[in-house]
Amino acid sequence: MSHEPLQIRNPHSIIAALETRPSDVIRVALPPSGAMKGATDAAGDAWEQVARLARERKVQVHTGSGGAAHEPRGGRQQRSAKPDAGRISAAHAVVREKPAVTAQELFRGARDRAGGKGLWLALDSLQDPQNIGAIFRTAAFFGVQGLLMTTERSAPLTGAAYDVASGGVEHVPYALQVNL
Q: What is the pTM of this model?
């Protein structure tokens, strides 16, 4: 697990982090207000909610053109095959990674949760952060009690995983083990 902050670009993931652990949101960078109005209604509304929640929770908010000034120091950026891969998105948040729990904590009280019929998932050797994010998103939707993930031959939780999860990482606890 890395201790570097992540850059998250999905407004729904940022909203979930602001709602569940605002002290881990270091700062939010928003596009100029005119650019938010030019976005689709749903995306613009989500970014407006990010701005409102960040201000309510006293998280540092920058409004401007994005650029290198908003790049987190030591933060992991998503990689892309696009020609502008080094460019920083105008709208993003710098967020500390959600800490893993121990396997004992993940399964504590399992008989009492969900009427003793809870569901946990074990992920072994998943190498694509987007697949990890999609699993977190689906797990959150279906009420999965937790994920047991391996660190051996597996992708770490990156900003890309958080973005694809659309807030799912914030709602599903996970534990990291070397292997299953």
A: 0.80
| Distance between CA atoms of residues 8 and 10, nearest Å | 6
Between vectors from CA 2 to CA 7 and to CA 156, what angle results, nearest 5°? 80
Dist. CA 13–CA 174, nearest whole Å = 17
State pLDDT tens for residues 147-174: 999 999 999 999 999 999 999 999 999 9
Residue 113: half-sphere exposure toward Cβ, Cα within 13 Å: 13
